[in-house]
UniProtKB/TrEMBL annotation:
Signal peptide: none annotated. It comes from Polaribacter sejongensis. The keyword Protease applies. SUPFAM superfamilies: beta-lactamase/transpeptidase-like (SSF56601). Gene3D superfamilies: DD-peptidase/beta-lactamase superfamily. InterPro entries: Beta-lactam/transpept-like (IPR012338), Peptidase_S13 (IPR000667). This is D-alanyl-D-alanine carboxypeptidase.
């Protein structure tokens, strides 16, 4: 009996090894073309159940990750934030409510529309708001200055409102949120935008696409936005003798993470790190959260990353494919796949992967893309036809091809894994 078991085990190991060798050889052949001569490529593929590396190509080298950085932000949020988002801290003294910012991005956000702070503030005669408790600058290190009025580059702040953007719709008529800017938006023949150094917005009269234009966040604007919804009730404090310590909570954190990952929302990613820092200190700062994670949950990474922001907008970020697989494995080990996969865009189905990597007949890719000029990366989970879960990171930097050509080459590798492992 024992002899038979050993024979079966030997045969299984032998054929599995042969399959892995063949798979590796086939991927090597796909990479051994002139297409890859003038770009930098790294691939790491890991069978989580077998605890086995299936493929490693430049996986210990550092790459510009773009929005793959959000995988580290997701892990930070999962580890550091409670089940519901800490909207703010507060204290009450008779008829006065004092609110201290935590960085929650959902307050009156165009998608979430959370009104936790507004509902509480309506109950009091006076509202004091502390929103200067942040050490971060409005932009992350290395962000492109010319993106100041681009939808993907809202400013970071302690107490965001409306997603820190002006939201414009033009269907039967032009609608503006927040309402404060309804009579301040200039309708022009241009497309859309904002003056570089002021909250002066313009919008094309023939433009029909819903548009988000980042605001310049300062004390004056914050006070005006609050007093637009609660007239003559709100004032800003730089210090308070009363220490806000009671935490009010807004939406479930999974809702925030899903939105951040699915549409690759840079603003939400940056604010998640600010939020995470609120669990460490009253003085907010994304670097506190990043350093805490690197010194604790991420201290065992084989290659320590250069991690400078939450979104991946910065080209200063440097990560290896191995690091992404290690973090994705940590998340996989802690969270059931049903909950985990909801955070990630699905190939051929949702978010940033809606038009790529579709399954036949069912989806097989759950992953986060990362795109900057001449860079495209994808890291996440691949389900093979045999039911195995593979964790992968496939990174492409500094190419001169089109993004679609790069994605076709990647898809060939993914389908090889799906069909033959």
């Amino acid at each position: 009996m024992l002899k038979r078991v050993l024979v079966v085990l030997f045969v299984t190991v032998y054929f599995t090894s042969c399959k892995t060798v063949k798979l590796s050889r086939n991927i090597d052949q796909k990479l051994a073309t002139s297409f890859f001569d003038n770009q930098f490529t790294g691939i790491y593929i890991y069978d989580v159940a077998a605890d086995k590396v299936l493929y490693n190509y430049n996986a210990d080298k550092y790459f510009t990750p773009a929005s793959n950085t959000k995988i580290f932000t997701l892990f930070t949020g999962l580890e550091m934030l409670p089940d519901s988002i800490p909207a703010f801290k507060y204290a009450v003294n008779k008829d006065t409510l004092t609110i201290q910012a935590t960085g929650d991005p959902t307050f009156l956000h165009p998608f979430f529309k959370d009104s936790t702070a507004l509902k509480l503030a309506k109950k009091y005669k006076k509202v004091h708001l502390i929103a200067n408790n942040i050490s971060d600058k409005r932009y992350g290190p290395g962000w492109a200055w010319e993106d100041f009025d681009s939808y993907f580059s809202p400013e970071v702040s302690a107490f965001p409102m409306y997603g820190n953007v002006v939201f414009v719709q033009n269907q039967d008529s032009i609608k503006v949120a927040p309402n404060y800017f309804a009579n301040k938006l200039e309708i022009t023949d241009k497309s859309y935008g904002r003056k570089e150094l002021s909250n002066s917005f313009y919008f094309g009269k023939n433009r029909k696409r819903e548009t988000e234009i980042p605001m310049i966040i300062n004390d004056s604007l914050l006070l005006n936005l609050w007093n637009d919804i609660l007239p003559n009730k709100v004032s800003l404090l730089h210090k308070s003798a009363l220490k806000p310590s009671t935490i009010a909570y807004s939406i479930p954190k999974d809702s925030l993470f899903k939105r951040m990952m699915e549409v690759s929302d840079n603003f939400l990613a940056e604010q998640i790190l600010v939020l995470a820092s609120s669990t460490l200190s009253d003085t907010l700062g994304a670097a506190k959260a990043r350093n805490f994670m690197l010194e604790n949950q991420l201290k065992d990474l084989q290659q320590k990353p250069r991690w400078v922001d939450g979104s991946g907008l910065s080209r200063y970020n440097l990560f290896t494919p191995i690091s992404f697989v290690e973090v994705l494995t940590k998340i996989h080990n802690k969270i059931p796949e049903k909950r985990l996969f909801q955070f990630f865009p699905v190939g051929g189905k949702t978010g940033t992967l809606k038009n790529w990597f579709s399954g036949n007949p069912k989806p097989y890719i759950h992953a986060k893309s990362g795109t900057l000029g001449n860079n495209y990366n994808l890291s996440g989970y691949l389900i093979t036809n045999s039911g195995k879960t593979l964790i992968f990171s496939y990174m492409n930097n500094h190419y001169m091809h089109s993004n679609s050509e790069v994605k076709k080459k990647m898809q060939a590798v993914f389908e090889e894994l799906r069909d033959n492992y």
